């Protein structure tokens, strides 16, 4: 209620009040009573035209009021029900306004957020990040984008991206304010963390794997392999040096029959029995 004035009225109450005030106003004494019929008809015609003008103005006001109500409803949907949190803070960091999404993100009622320092809802280790970007915004007036962890009333931190812009400049002398869009990036951070762990595991696995590639010069007779320095090495030694493979020795059936033939029935030959070299390291 304005000082020195009555309550603001709307609708029929407002017009009835105006009518009572009009009746109390002094009537001009310059009203002529000796009007000719032609002048009376002209006055009546002017009154009718004025009445039509008032009706048209009244219709225009009703249409404007309807448009304002639609715009107000659209504002509620676009601002309060937006999937992104919106807040407005003062230059000193005090919360001035917050939409429903921001209130849910901070885990607090909208009314409880107003006039509270926004730093209360910032993870302690990330408060310097916010302070420096807010200082940079008011100094350079350039938009700021950064990431930090917000803390709700339960003390649970959540990664959030902040887009800060300056507002209020040139708006009827209003003080400068900071407008912030809050985007929940917890899922993205979890995906980035999982990707980092996977890359570390792959790099660790690749560090343990040594592969042989290219053409290997091997002797057609003794089957030894020549290394880069020109030395000839046994196949086992070369592979063990250039990979993580380890050898265990055994004998295939063909070699077993070749080097250790079984004693033929009724004939001479090897003493038979097991070969001297069995599978092992």
Average pLDDT metric = 79
Tell me the β content. Answer: 5-15%
Reported CATH architecture of the domain at 80-191: 2-Layer Sandwich
CATH topology of the domain at 80-191: Beta-Lactamase
Biggest beta sheet attributes: 5 strands, antiparallel
What's the helix-strand series? HHEEHHHEEEHEEHH
Number of strands: 7
Query: Which shape, going by the Cα principal axes?
Result: rod-shaped
CATH class of the domain at 80-191: Alpha Beta
- The neighbouring-strand order within the major sheet is 2-1-5-4-3
Sheet/helix structural class: alpha+beta
Low-confidence stretches: 1-9, 263-273, 276-281
State the distance separating the first and last CA atoms: 98 Å
Helix content: 40-55%
Estimated radius of gyration: 46 Å
How many helices does DSSP assign?
Answer: 8
Please name the fourth-level CATH homologous superfamily of the domain at 80-191: PAS domain
Describe the structure concisely.
This protein is of the alpha+beta class and 281 residues long. The chain has helices at 12-24, 37-80, 100-106, 110-113, 127-140, 186-208, 235-242, 253-259, and strands spanning 85-90, 95-98, 144-151, 157-167, 177-184, 225-226, 232-233.
């Amino acid at each position: 209620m304005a000082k020195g004035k009555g309550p603001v009225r709307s609708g029929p109450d407002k017009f009835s009040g105006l009518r009572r005030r009009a009746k109390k106003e002094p009537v001009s004494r310059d009203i002529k009573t000796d009007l000719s019929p032609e002048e009376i008809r002209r006055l009546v015609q002017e009154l009718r035209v004025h009445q039509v003008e008032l009706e048209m103005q009244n219709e225009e006001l009703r249409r404007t009021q309807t448009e304002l109500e639609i715009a107000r409803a659209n504002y509620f949907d676009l601002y309060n029900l937006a999937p992104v949190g919106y807040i407005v803070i003062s230059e000193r960091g005090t919360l001035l306004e917050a939409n429903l999404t921001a209130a849910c993100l901070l885990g607090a009622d909208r009314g409880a957020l107003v006039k509270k320092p926004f730093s209360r809802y910032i993870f302690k280790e990330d408060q310097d990040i916010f302070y420096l970007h807010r200082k940079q915004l008011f100094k350079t007036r350039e938009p700021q984008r950064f990431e930090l962890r917000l803390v709700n009333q339960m003390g649970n931190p959540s990664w959030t991206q902040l887009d800060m812009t300056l507002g209020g400049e040139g708006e009827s002398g209003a003080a400068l304010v900071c407008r912030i869009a809050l985007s929940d990036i917890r899922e993205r951070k979890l995906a980035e963390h999982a990707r980092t762990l996977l890359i570390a595991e792959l790099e660790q696995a690749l560090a343990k794997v040594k592969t042989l590639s290219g053409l290997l010069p091997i002797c057609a007779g003794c089957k030894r392999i020549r290394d880069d320095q020109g030395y000839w090495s046994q196949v086992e030694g070369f592979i063990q040096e250039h990979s993580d493979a380890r050898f265990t020795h055994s004998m295939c059936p063909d070699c077993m029959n070749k080097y250790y033939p079984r004693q033929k029935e009724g004939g001479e030959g090897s003493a038979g029995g097991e070969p001297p070299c069995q599978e092992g390291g």
